[in-house]
Write a structure and sequence with these properties.
Elements: E1 4-8, H1 15-26, E2 32-35, H2 43-48, E3 58-61, E4 64-67, H3 69-78, H4 88-103, H5 106-111, H6 127-147, H7 160-174, H8 181-191, H9 194-204
Parallel strand pairs: 1-2
Antiparallel strand pairs: 1-3, 3-4
The structure holds glutathione (GSH).
The site of glutathione has 14 residues, from helix 1 and helix 2.
Length: 216
């Protein structure tokens, strides 16, 4: 069993940290964690001591460092076949939408920052963010239409795709983005699972407030 250390940022704000953390927890893979508070005078130096990329999350497994959330997920998948669906077409969809999340939706991410403990926030979104929201709803709808009968997660069984979109599920609740029933059901599946509850409870216990992440 490898020694795994996951280096994360603030639970309340660090959406990229949440993704691999949720995946490891949901799959029951043991790991220890190191939390580096973001936006502090020593943040950069502390992260750089763990990763040359200077960003969290970072997975350190035995002596090996892996950075970038999707690369961490792929590394975990190398030794665990529950990370991605096994059926080839479902697996291809899971990978496609996860890569789309990793590489895109910049307007949404900028305008609606993850803020796990906040609720009832209202933001006037730009057309670019509205387009991101529409595309995300379309992704979730096509996933649920094709795989709803197989289980409550995005593609039926839990997979990395749920972990990749979990921070968006949280944002949509914080900022009151309306969802049709089938998508609201998936949102509840993610936000109410034990691992996500654990993350949210710890986020609420964090003292730091990062002003520029507090919008709406
Ligand atoms: N593309 C990266 C994004 C990582 C990222 O932007 N992390 C933020 C926190 S959510 C960070 O480390 N910020 C600290 C900094 O830039 O100093 C990934 O997928 O892991």
């Amino acid at each position: 069993m490898p020694e795994r250390l996951l280096v994360i940022g603030n639970r309340n704000y660090s959406s990229w940290s949440l993704r691999p953390w949720l995946l490891l927890r949901q799959l029951g893979l043991p790991f220890t964690e190191e939390r580096i508070a973001l936006d502090q005078p020593d943040t950069k130096a502390r992260i750089l001591a763990r990763s040359p990329a200077g960003r969290v999350p970072v997975l350190i497994e035995d002596e090996l460092g892996v950075w970038e959330s999707l690369a961490i997920i792929e590394h975990v998948a190398d030794a665990n076949n529950a990370v991605w669906p096994t059926e080839p077409a479902t697996r291809a969809m899971a990978r496609s939408i996860s890569a789309e999340m990793h590489g895109g939706f910049t307007a949404l991410r900028n305008e609606l920052p993850m803020n796990v403990r906040a609720a009832g926030r209202k933001v006037r979104t730009s057309p670019a963010a509205d387009a991101d929201i529409a595309r995300i709803k379309a992704i979730w709808s096509s996933a649920r239409e094709a795989h709803g009968a197989a289980g409550p997660w995005l593609l039926g069984a839990f997979s990395a795709a749920d972990a990749m979109f979990a921070p968006v599920a949280s944002r949509f609740r914080t900022y009151g983005i309306d969802l049709p029933d089938a998508l609201a059901q998936w949102q509840r599946t993610v936000l109410e699972c034990a691992a996500m509850q654990e993350w949210a409870t710890a986020a609420r216990a964090e003292a730091e407030v990062i002003e520029h992440e507090e919008v709406g």
